[in-house]
Amino acid sequence: MPVFRFILQRALQAVLVTLAVTLFVALAVRLTGDPAVMMTAESSSVTEEDLIRIREALGLNQPFYAQYLDFLKGLITFDLGNSFFRGSIADLISIALPSTLILAVASMGISILISIPLGIHAALHKGGISDQIIRVLSLVGLSFPNFWLGIMFVLLLSITFPILPASGFETWSALILPALTIGIILTATNVRLVRTQMLETLSAQYVMVARAKGLSEWSVIYKHALRNAAIAIVTFLGLQFGNLIGGLVVVELVFNWPGMGTLSIEAIAQRDYPLLQATVTILAIMIVAVNLAVDLVYGLIDPRIRVA
């Protein structure tokens, strides 16, 4: 059962990576300082006895391994305890995580819908006017910081012409501006990737053979060339999506999007140690899960990878 062995191997690797990530996050957060001291940093009347009571209430007087095992248990059951200031962490994440995933999927969808057709067109018209225009536009897109582009969209489409909401997620129309902002930035990179991969496959011998057999140009491009170029494209898009989940912080702040990035920044600003550890861990697990999904998609696209 090569397929089952392939899936099991990748799943075990993902579990080991997840354990390593959770351990690293737990250590890193604790190295930032004593949470009890952080909570009371703005109070001048706190005594050492008060700090001891806070540590006991939060379980910080236990050995690190006991705290880590409790955190793993809570992670498995999604009982992540309480924030210092905002109640149940699980409730906060259950609101923020879907918002981040919705924004990431919408942004990636916009990028794919634009970059694949444009990349194929540029490859088929290499050196032509349309190819040159697409390459220049992609270069311009790479030059835009995502926060600047987001601010420009807000000024144009929310203030000058009040067409779309500028912040929040009260209605689905609020998704358009942040998703468009990120989608355009991603497209600038992805269209160049698709063009490069298609140029390589279109010059391959099997594509020439397919054309010599009299296959339609649509079949040659989409069934043969694009499918073989898809391995590198899926690899990059998968990694890009994983990075996107953890890299939406700036755009979420610009649009006041209620996602994981905004929640993490608020946890840092409030020195909310349990909330910070939980948000960073959940984001890391999501990235590991995306990489696992990419590995499994590899096996579907190219059976040779299953036995690699």
From TrEMBL:
Pfam families xrefs: BPD_transp_1, BPD_transp_1_N
Membrane spanning residue stretches: 101-124, 136-159, 171-191, 229-255, 275-301
Span of domain ABC transmembrane type-1: 97-298
Compartment(s): Cell membrane
PROSITE patterns listed in its UniProt record: ABC_TM1
Keyword S-adenosyl-L-methionine part of the UniProt annotation: no
Keyword entries, A-Z: Cell membrane, Membrane, Transmembrane, Transmembrane helix, Transport
One Gene Ontology biological process: transmembrane transport
Similarity remark: Belongs to the binding-protein-dependent transport system permease family.
Name of protein: ABC transporter permease
